[in-house]
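Blinded run. Sample ID left blank on purpose so nobody reads anything into the name before looking at the predicted structure. Input follows.
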Amino acid sequence: MASPAPAPVLASAGAPPSRLARFLDSDLFANFRRSKLAMAAFAATVLFIALALLAPVISPQNPYDPAQLELMNASLPPLWYADGQAPFLLGTDDQGRDVLSAVFYGMRLSLLVGVLGVLLSGFIGIGLGLIAGYAGGWVDTVIMRVADVQLTFPAILIALIVDGVAKAVAGGHMEANAQIALIVVAIGLSFWVQYARTVRGSVMVEKNKDYVQAGRLIGLSAPVILTRHILPNVTGPVFVIATINLALAIITEATLSFLGTGLPETMPSLGTLIRTGNRFLFSGEWWIVAFPGLALAGLVLAINLLGDWLRDALNPKLQ
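Blinded prediction complete.
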């Protein structure tokens, strides 16, 4: 009697690649590696973020702790001048605060306000764009007409109006954390239109595709279809807008602070440091305003270059 044939051994399928592995094998990452400008912008952005996050560790002093300040150290020039003193590498301001430490702490606050403002504007704009594109009709008309009206005003003007009205209602007396929240809300209400218009256009294309019709046939609700199925397919342009708007949000916050309507001097950002140093520019103490200005310009330029590359990399017409 012949022995039975051995059962075939099924080859075990390998584990699916992780998201990181898929990203490293993607065309987007290959495009990134080919662009030296994008790599330099990414490295500069990461460096600025690291310096801001590590400010309490790497700063020579906490410039906003009165116990660490001495008026005898006021208005010292940078270290390479004959009158410069260690550890004040970039000099000090009129209150004896180390300029380098102030830049690190100010950049930290500017990035915080910028990121929170972008998240809020994205949340508002994406939500309204999804509703307008999917619902259509009078809902779409109302949302888009509001967006059109807001587009007629500069973003900085919208932020100034929101900031002024809120401070008028509060009587002009607000705590530091409340002023930070107010600036975030002002920025969020200034930049939501781009998200809404872009997402609306993408949703109007996606909602007529077969997978959306199938979702409706099996009884999925509109919020489920929007959040689980349509939203992941419209995130590409959103990332581009968010990257570019981060630079715009940082500039908006710096402008508001420079005009004296932004963050308080007890919690200064880069804009507040520039406003403070501007008073001493013509007295020869140029370093008080120059280094915060250079930090702001470098940070915004790096983010903008990264956003421009991302926009081109995700544009199928340029592939």
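Unblinding after everyone has recorded impressions. Residues 127 and 269 are 30 Å apart (CA to CA).
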